[in-house]
Design a protein that fits this description.
about 10% strand; globular; binds glutathione
Length: about 200
């Protein structure tokens, strides 16, 4: 088995979802931390050798580098119960992972980053002007999740899959972006279900 190294920033939900996938599966990885607030992933060295986009997370598999958090989760979970065996359910899992990328993360995670990490006073005019639209879109994404979870325990099928892990990562810290999770009771019950999974690890 190739050695696994996660190039990461621990407070990032994108990095956390890879750690959570690995933990649930009992997979060991080395970890290398970069301070994105200091631009440590934007160096020529990082871009040349690790990720041309200058972003973490990147999963290093032996001498190969895999950026994109959801791709890294798929790599780790290949052949495991975190990816449904049923063809339709596997595609449905991807549906929710694409939903996470398009409807959830750019709104819920970005507002958390702007408010809890950058700070409102340091935001640009453009960022400030984008906040109301991101708030509405983030609330719509959370509502869609809540509506779905009012009917089922897990996003796909009857057990945890990568869809749950991908969506858990930024949902459980959404309040850092000013979202009120008390408005979404089915999400709250699902968060608690994820947190009682064997080998669950919390975000650092
Ligand atoms: N689509 C990418 C997003 C990667 C991303 O946005 N990474 C952020 C942290 S969560 C980053 O590296 N920011 C530092 C920067 O852009 O300089 C993924 O899912 O991994």
């Amino acid at each position: 088995m190739d050695k696994l190294i996660l190039h990461e920033y621990a407070a990032s939900g994108n990095c956390y979802k890879i750690r959570l996938t690995a933990a649930l599966l009992g997979i060991l990885m080395e970890r290398v931390e970069y301070d994105i607030m200091k631009g440590e992933t934007r160096t020529p060295q990082f871009r040349t050798h690790i990720n041309p986009l200058g972003r973490i997370p990147v999963l290093q598999v032996g001498s190969r580098f895999l950026p994109e958090s959801n791709a890294a989760c798929c790599y780790l979970a290949d052949g495991s119960s975190l990816i449904p065996a049923d063809r339709f359910q596997r595609a449905d899992m991807l549906r929710w992972m694409f939903f996470e990328r398009y409807h959830h993360e750019p709104n819920v995670a970005t507002l958390r980053f702007w408010l809890a990490f950058v700070g409102i006073d340091a935001l640009s005019e453009l960022q400030r002007s984008q906040m109301p639209a991101k708030r509405l879109a983030g609330e719509a994404a959370l509502q869609a999740m809540d509506d779905h979870l009012a009917l089922v325990d897990w996003f796909v099928g009857d057990s945890v899959s990568l869809a749950d892990i991908a969506l858990y990562a930024y949902t459980h810290v959404a309040e850092g972006g000013g979202f009120d999770l008390s408005l979404y009771p089915a999400i709250q019950a699902w968060l608690a279900r994820v947190e009682t999974l064997p080998r669950f690890v919390a975000m650092e």
